[in-house]
């Protein structure tokens, strides 16, 4: 059992819980809370066992997952920071959570972070990390809340088209059949979605709706990617779906991802003695095999071209990142397009994929990495960081912003997506300054596009073939200021990042393609990051990376502490009701007026979304709603009959 620690009397203590695996109810045998319970009761710190003392820990990868593994080993595992070493091929911590540059050369961030309130693992960790700017005793969480509680996030120009015109984004624009396409996906079993793509499930018309533009641009999904992952995202963010259109469901950090999260976490770990070795690429693990048991005995590394083996004792623990979404990034600037140095179907041995590739050759328990890195044309997109001084671009931005861009408050409230862009181009301006030392007259914008094989609408080239100047020209075109592009370019610096594996984790997959956090038989190895299997969580988030680190630490250190399943918002009837309203384009869904009629004088009346003003009496509206529902009874009975036939066929197949 993955994430299980052998217990007394043959019973395993399950570290990674799964609320969807079985019915949970109160009984004497349930001394632990429900699998997806969050809150203070889950903040217990287990008493470390004697096995922790004297152990060494090796962490391969200094991104958020690796840093989180070190954090949890110290806070919950009782390990000494001096016994923990992080190995990183880069020369700076943070992995994909980067942020660097200056106003003279231009700033660069390969990506950004949009989060919501129930990133429970992230907030669990950062409520114990000293804030970057607040006085001693205040946490990163305290600082985050201070910013977001007083500066609400929303967008007034979420979708644009026709060279600078705001497109109506007030609702999802879904027809009834398209709403049912989403509902059917929510009802499908995870196990039935192996290797199925999004475009295999949804109609072509669905993929042109407002909903899909909101979804694909916010989460970076492509039509040919995993339907299973989209389903998991829908469950994970069901509580936020009514804030998807204007992005009011999101909260953003004050600064870029590196300064907001990596710097304070690294300071926390360094103060406790954790060692980081830069420029060290781990590309394989030596293992001893005894039956099904596998124990890491050494880490094969390259440091400045020199190969070496770091010895690992059987009592030591190793945590390794599998794959990398920003590996092989190609950079460009104002006058230079990026040049990829990775093969289309194989990244080669001198890459961050080498470790996983070599592990997979040892045993099927380590998954199938080629499923994810094997076609970069389907996992690649490009991001653009703009360092802007006053120009027509800044003036246009002011018209689209929620607040003055120089005010320090929310600016665009998230990305603005150009729906008629051949590239599916989006641009955003987060709170400024985006870097702590950024000059007051400088703004930092970020843009990205999803489709890398289409010519631009204004610049007749695919985006990867374009210089920063050409991409800036395409952006100006879609903002309706193409005739002022030269004035914009004179006061703007552009830095490019073309990432061949940035959505590799969304590639269609089947059971077994991703390894478990602690693969079967592994005694001292845990795997982390975006390419490992978890029960119900999604990928491509800081929270999911931290979750994998927690599961690995608790399992390998034998800690009697659980990592809860994802926040149970998907089961909350209030979220289901408001999601139904949102999917129905903010109109009362079938049966909603009847519900209001039935519950209007009960304790539960307040959980229903307010009804729009009625032209006639509410009783008549409820009766019309009832007749509408009864009019569909034939379809409902037919569906029930089909379900019984399906069940009958299944039972026959089990005989």
From TrEMBL:
Signal peptide: none annotated. One of its GO terms (biological process) is fatty acid metabolic process. InterPro entries: FAD/NAD-bd_sf (IPR036188), Oleate_hydratase (IPR010354). This is Oleate hydratase. Coiled coil: none annotated. GO terms for molecular function: FAD binding; oleate hydratase activity.
């Amino acid at each position: 059992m993955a994430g299980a620690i052998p217990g007394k009397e043959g019973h395993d203590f399950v570290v990674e819980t799964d609320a969807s695996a079985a019915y949970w109810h109160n009984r004497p045998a349930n001394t632990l809370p429900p699998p997806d319970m969050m809150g203070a009761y889950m903040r217990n710190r287990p008493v470390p066992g004697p096995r922790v003392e004297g152990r060494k820990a090796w962490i391969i990868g200094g991104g958020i997952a690796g840093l989180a593994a070190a954090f949890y080993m110290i806070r919950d595992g009782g390990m000494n920071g001096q016994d923990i070493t992080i190995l990183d091929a880069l020369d700076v911590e943070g992995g994909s959570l980067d942020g660097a540059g200056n106003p003279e050369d231009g700033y660069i961030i390969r990506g950004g972070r949009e989060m919501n309130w129930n990133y429970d693992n992230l907030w669990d960790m950062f409520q114990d990390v000293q804030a970057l700017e607040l006085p001693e005793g205040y946490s990163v969480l305290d600082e985050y809340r201070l910013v977001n509680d007083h500066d609400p996030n929303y967008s007034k120009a979420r979708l644009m088209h026709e060279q600078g015109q705001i497109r109506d984004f007030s609702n999802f624009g879904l027809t009834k059949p398209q709403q049912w396409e989403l509902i059917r996906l929510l009802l499908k079993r995870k196990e039935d979605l192996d290797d199925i793509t999004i475009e295999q499930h949804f109609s072509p018309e669905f993929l042109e709706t407002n909903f899909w533009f909101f979804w694909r641009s916010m989460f970076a999904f492509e039509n040919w990617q995993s339907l299973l992952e989209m389903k998991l995202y829908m469950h994970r963010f069901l509580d936020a779906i009514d804030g998807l259109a204007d992005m009011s469901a999101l909260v953003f950090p004050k600064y870029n991802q590196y300064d907001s999260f990596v710097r304070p976490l690294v300071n926390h770990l360094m103060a406790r003695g954790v060692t980081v070795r830069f420029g060290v690429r781990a590309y394989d693990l030596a293992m001893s095999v005894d039956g099904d048991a596998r124990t890491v005995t050494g880490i094969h590394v390259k440091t400045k071209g020199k190969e070496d083996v770091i010895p690992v004792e059987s009592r030591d623990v190793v945590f390794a990142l599998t794959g990398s979404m920003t590996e092989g990034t190609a950079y460009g600037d104002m006058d230079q397009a990026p040049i990829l140095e990775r093969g289309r179907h194989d990244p080669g041995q001198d890459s961050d994929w080498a470790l996983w590739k070599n592990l997979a050759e040892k045993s099927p328990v380590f998954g199938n990495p080629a499923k994810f890195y094997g076609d970069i044309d389907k996992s690649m997109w490009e991001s653009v960081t703009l360092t802007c001084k006053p120009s027509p671009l800044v003036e246009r931005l002011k018209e689209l912003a929620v607040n003055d861009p120089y005010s320090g408050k929310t600016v665009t409230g998230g990305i603005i997506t150009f729906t008629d862009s051949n590239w599916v181009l989006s641009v955003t301006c987060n709170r400024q300054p985006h870097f702590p030392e950024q000059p007051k007259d400088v703004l930092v914008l970020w843009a990205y596009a999803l489709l890398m094989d289409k010519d631009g609408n204004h610049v007749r080239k695919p985006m990867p073939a374009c210089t920063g100047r050409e991409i800036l020209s395409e952006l100006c075109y879609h903002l309706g200021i193409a005739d002022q592009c030269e004035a914009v370019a004179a006061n703007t610096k552009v830095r490019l990042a073309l990432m061949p594996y940035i959505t590799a984790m969304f590639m269609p997959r089947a059971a077994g393609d991703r390894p478990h956090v602690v693969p079967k038989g592994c005694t001292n190895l845990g795997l982390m990051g975006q390419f490992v299997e978890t029960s119900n969580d999604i990928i491509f988030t800081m929270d999911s990376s931290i979750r994998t680190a927690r599961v690995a630490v608790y399992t390998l250190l034998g800690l009697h502490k659980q990592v809860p399943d994802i926040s149970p918002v998907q089961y909350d009837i209030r979220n289901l009701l408001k999601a139904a309203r949102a999917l129905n384009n903010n109109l009362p869904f079938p049966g909603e007026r009847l519900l209001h009629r039935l519950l209007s004088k009960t304790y539960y009346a307040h959980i229903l979304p307010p009804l729009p003003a009625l032209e006639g009496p509410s009783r008549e509206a409820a009766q019309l709603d009832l007749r509408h529902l009864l009019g569909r009874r034939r379809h409902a009975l037919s569906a029930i009959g089909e379900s019984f036939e399906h069940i009958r066929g299944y039972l026959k197949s089990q005989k």
